[in-house]
Amino acid sequence: MPTPLDESSIRTAPKVLLHDHLDGGVRPETVVDIAREIGYDELPAPDAPTLAKWFRDSADSGSLERYLETFAHTVAVMQTADGLARVAREAAEDLADDGVVYAEIRWAPEQHTEAGLSLDEVVDAVLAGFREGEQAAAERGKRIRVGAIATAMRHAARSREIAELAVAYRDKGIVGFDIAGAEAGFPPTRHLDAFEYLRRENFHFTIHAGEAFGLPSIWEAIQWCGTDRLGHGVRIVDDITAGGALGRLAQYVRDKRIPLEMCPSSNVQTGAAESIAEHPIGLLRKLQFRVTVNTDNRLMSGTSMTREMALLADAFGYDWADLQWFTINAMKSSFIGFDERLQLINGVIKPGYAALRA
Predict the structure, then answer these.
(1) 40 and 160: one domain?
(2) Is 51 within a domain?
(3) How far apart are CA 311 and CA 265, in angstroms?
(4) Which residues are annotated as a binding site?
(5) Do 115 and 200 lie in a common domain?
(6) Which bin fits 9, alpha (ψ -120 to 50), beta or left (φ > 0)?
(7) pLDDT digits (tens, 9 = 90+) for 12-48
(8) 251 and 135, same structural domain?
(9) Is the pTM above the cut of 0.90?
(10) What is the domain count for the chain?
């Protein structure tokens, strides 16, 4: 008989995560600890449990200003090499404990230089933390491989600089590039020089598109910028009729197998979806788009990969075959080499789900 599908059993399943923000997944205890160490006295709550509730309530408030305020506090405690390394190490350990075997974690180096760190020092600290986290997890019998994605802020003018930074570290742990931030008013085409540079360097990149803004954002990200993946991409559903007929853009995205980095709980919080049960992921899975499941900001959403998969299983009646499908989609869409992807699919993911279905 198959293993009953619940949060406890899902946690044991091998999972792959492509869209997770480092500053959105800090442990509340760590925020409090580092704030005390560096003399940061602007936290809205004095202890970890109360602070965790504040982060979640703010993210659920429906106020974009309040939601963005949460990141001001996490970024504030990520301004030293020790702080960055600790946050990165704990992120790797937490994901490994949640059954994630491969993760791509993104962060914006330009946001972590306020205390005098150079961009290189920021990257070195984060990559060192990831490696320490992988090792600590391995010592507990947990396997995880972490790839870093360097993010540039779309409202700023440093995307080419961050793209060059990412390429410089391509053999040291950075596997891709991203732009993030407000979509409306800051189209991805503002950063064409960065994307053209990345393509010349044969380097992978993803673009936040189709979350807060609609189809034009997705179209620009694909046809002008040449993105490999779409960060969220929820609004592609706007190009699909109620009867399931695909418009030209949706057809192209599906035909080209362009991965959609969907983050169900986060999408509900930001208003990109009404609820988990009404999330476009259900329709897009039926229509065989290259859909992946992700966490986005684990702290703000109070979530994990286990929780996201459990919510989807409950909402759409998914079984182990469906969860394996999402996981293999993500592994196929990752930014590491083909051989390593294949090894994880055939050596870890398929055997892991086979055992749960047996």
Answers:
(1) no
(2) yes
(3) 9
(4) 19, 21, 23, 181, 208, 296
(5) yes
(6) alpha
(7) 999 999 999 999 999 999 999 999 999 999 999 999 9
(8) yes
(9) yes
(10) 2
Q: Which residues are catalytic?
A: 211
Q: How far is CA 50 from the centre of its chain?
A: 25
Q: Note whether 182 and 316 are same-domain residues.
A: yes
* Residues making up the binding site for substrate: 21, 23, 181
The two structure tokens encoding residue 150? 């360097």
Residue 78: exposed, middle, or buried by beta-carbon count in 10 A (0-12, 13-18, 19+)? buried
CB 182 within 8 A of CB 212: yes
Residue 200 and residue 310 share a domain? yes
Per-residue pLDDT tens for 144-196? 999 999 999 988 899 999 999 999 999 999 999 999 987 667 788 899 999 99
Residue whose token pair is 């990257």: 123
Asked if residue 2 belongs to a domain, the reply is: no
Q: Are residues 183 and 43 in the same domain?
A: no
DSSP letter (8 states) at residue 305: H
Query: How far is the C-alpha of 67 from the C-alpha of 57, rounded, in Å?
Result: 9
Q: Name the residue range of residue 19's domain.
A: 7-26+88-357
